[in-house]
Each structure stands twice: as structure tokens, then as C-alpha cells.
Amino acid sequence: MSAEIDGDAAGDVAGDIDVLVLGGAGVDTIVYVPELPLPYADSYMIDGGIRARAGQTGDFVALGLAALGLRTHHLDFLGDDPEGDLVRALHRDRGIGLTAIPQPAGTKRAVNMVSPDGRRLSLYDNSRSRPDDRFPEDTLRALAAASRHAHVSITHPCAEALPVLREAGVGISTDLHNWDGENPYHEAFAYEADVVFVSVTALPDPHATMRRIAARGRAEVVVATAGAEGAYLLTGGEVTHVPAAAPPAPVIDSNGAGDAFAAAFLFGRLRGEPPRRCAEYGALAGAYACTVPATESAALSRAGLPGAATAPGAVTAPAAAASQSGA
User: Fold this and answer.
1) pLDDT tens digit string along 217-228?
2) Which of 121, 153, 191, 274 is the most buried (most CB within 10 A)?
3) Cβ atoms within 10 Å of 165's Cβ, excluding its own
4) Quick one: CA dihedral 194, 200, 203, 205, positive or negative?
5) CB-facing half-sphere around the CA of 227: CA atoms within 13 A
6) Where is the Carbohydrate kinase PfkB domain (predicted)?
């Protein structure tokens, strides 16, 4: 199985990568529905159209990082199909390095139903992967060696890549999305990452879950996003609330808000900013994402983050030490 390196990706592999994004590449079909939950009916007329566009969780994190000026590279499986071509075009057009591993089962797909108030219901096609899929170890090691940080999606087979990333000494982050705190599939990600993002959506006790992640794993920072209620930040044994940022335009839908939050948080972390400032960056990027239609792919630029207009500098000594130790 040979890796397919697109566009300027070869230069990224040979040079420095700020963030390596693993997994989460795919295509969503967006359907604007009159309400959620959608009452049963024989048919509905969809005035807003039904559109397919590249962009699942890994794509959107990569997009957000690149928009903030970080050198970003994305590694995942893609099919030789029209959906894979959409993903390749997104990365090529946005200048994001991409290494695509051939996937005979096809590119990952989902259907997102979006209501007028911006809520989303996603239907994921989990047939687009195979149990024995693995990232080629030589490719993974080469990319990890060139990277300062790795953001790992919870899509298969990213869990199997975690030991290689840890051995390479890069900082690791992950987003558990709507984890219920119990599903064992998520535990490898939750307990191996230095920075863990999770939504409060399915958590009966978010603070308890955050503390459990920190106690059982390597995380020095745990962030629980709560939509319009803001986010909760656990660092140094203390949980604090980070208010939501005011959206700069009317809210259209929430698709990609969590990915935008993670990207901006990591931008701040790699600049050596304190966790609170990183979370405030995340809140601004998440609010901006809620103003972008799900049919489009756009992310907040560095100009939208107060105090971040200058180019990102080297990681400060404490942050670099934490990334290497996995503390």
C-alpha cells in the first residue's frame, strides 16, 4: 500500500510541520431541514438544496490551523472516487499538505441534516473503512518526526497510531466529540493525549469526566465545550468556565464549531500562550464557525484573534517541555 502525496505535501514531509492531523477526512452531504427532530413524512421539499462538500472533522481542524498560519499536514485514507477528489481539491486549494493512503472501501461520507436554528444531526456511513486498515508505519514515522504536534481524530485506525506518535515525542491532542464517558473505544484517545477536547452533549457529569481523563491519562489540559454556554477548562487541577464569544454575524449552523475551537486552541498552545488564552481563542473561532453555512468551508484568520496578528513564534520552553514529556 503506497501513500499518495498531493500538491506541496512533499515539501512538508521533508521540512517542518507545525501540526500533523490524523484521520477525519471525508465528504458531508448537507441537507437543510425545516426542523429537528424531523417528523416522519413521505417526502419534503428542500428549498436550500442538497449539496456535497469536502470537510469532516480532520479536514476542518486542518483548515482552521492553516487559516491561522500554521504549517499543517493531513494524513488519512481516501478512496479513488469523486468524494476523494473533493477532499484532495480542498487541501490543494487551501495549501494544506495531504498524504492519502488508498482506501478500496471508498472515502468516508456522512449526511448532515441542519435545522433553521443551526442544530445538526449527522448520519455517518461507517462502511468506508476496514478492520485491518493501518497507516503505513514508515510514512507515519516520517511525518511524526517532522512535526511539532499531532492532532488525532477518533476515526479508525488512528488509535493504532498513538504509540508511534508517543515514541516520536510529539505533543498529542484529540477530540472525543460527543463521548458519553463510558464507551471504551474513546479511552485510548482520552488517556494518551496531552490535550483532550470533548463535548458536554452526552456527559451526565462533565466535570467528573474531565477529572477522570486527567487522572487516568496524560492530559495536562482537558476542555469540555458547551456550545452557547461556552466551555470548561481543566488545568492544574482546577476547572474554570470560559464564556462563549459573541458571534460576529447571525448564527447559521454549528457544523465545524468544535473543530474550529480545537484549531484555535492549538494555535495558542504552540505560541506558548496560557491555557485560558488558548480557550478564549477557541471560543472566538467556534463562534465564527457558527456564522458560516455548512455548505461552505471557511475558518477564522489570525486577524480575528486579539494579540495574534504576528507570526507564531517558537514554542516557549515550558510548553516545549510539556509536549516532550507528555505531562
Assistant:
1) 999 999 999 999
2) 153
3) 24
4) positive
5) 14
6) 61-297
Retrieve residue 55's grid coordinates.
Answer: 470537510
Return the half-sphere exposure (C-beta side, CA atoms, 13 A cut-off) of residue 268. Answer: 24
Rounded Cα–Cα distance for residues 130 and 119 (Å): 31
DSSP 12-53: HHHS-EEEEEES--EEEEEEE-SSSS----S----TT-EEEE
Give me the helix-helix angle, 57-67 and 82-94, nearest 10°.
10
Q: Which domains does the chain have, with CATH numbers?
A: 4-36+48-300 (3.40.1190.20)
Residue 53: C-alpha distances to residues 86, 129, 157 (Å): 7, 20, 23
CB 253 within 8 A of CB 114: yes
Q: Are 59 and 24 in contact (CB under 8 A)?
A: yes
Among 294, 297, 299, which Cα is nearest to 120's? 294
What is the bridge-based pairing of β-strands 147-152 and 171-175?
Answer: parallel
Provide the grid cell at 300. 477564522
Q: Tens digit of pLDDT for each residue in 198-251?
A: 999 999 999 999 999 999 999 999 999 999 999 999 999 999 999 999 989 988
Residue type, 144: A
Task: Return the C-alpha cell found at 324.
Answer: 516532550
Burial 87-97 (b: 16+ CB within 10 A, else e): bbebbeebebb
Query: Which stretches within the chain are classed as H helix?
Result: 9-14, 57-67, 82-94, 137-145, 162-168, 187-192, 206-216, 257-270, 275-289, 317-325
- Chain centroid, CA 24 distance in Å: 8
- Read off the amino acid at residue 141: R
Structure pTM? 0.88
